[in-house]
Amino acid sequence: MSDQEIIEQLKQGSEAAFRKLVESHQKLVVNTCFGMVHNREDAEDIAQDVFIEVYRSIQQFRADSKLSTWLYRIAVNRSLNHIRDNKKHKWFQSFEKDEEAKSRQLFQVESSAADNPGYEMENKQRAAILYGAINSLPENQKVAFTLNKYEDLSYQEISEVMEMSVSSVESLLFRAKKNLQKKLYQCYKKKCM
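and the corresponding structure tokens:
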């Protein structure tokens, strides 16, 4: 079933079309949310909210963009709302709760390296520092960087999701990389890794 068929059937209230939408786009939505909030459980909860919002607002979808672009936009906005709502909870608290799962996903440690307990600890520490640096970026830079690096979207696709020009996206990504480079270099100089 194509995205257009899913949209048409969703507009008619088809539960089968909704199941197909979730099946075909769940990974994209969860990964987008995870790239923003860095917590698997939160990402899955936000993804559910995204699909509920799609179901409720499908009548307003004008198909000016692809369905996946619309899903990215909703996922990013929901994730940013979640981050704003939970600002009082530090990111590192959620990192500690989920650090073991992330380290397995981010670092595929070979068995010889896994025998060294310091290696795994160092990788967790590096992941925490990297996520902390990404989270400290201004909101638009963080969104553009996450969509580019975690979701592998092109500049054109990011411009559609963020509703801005391609040159603005290029500028955001350039500044995000410079800011990350600065933050990580300062950390390296202080030997925080």
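(Above: one complete record from the training split.) The chain has two domains: 1-91, 120-193.
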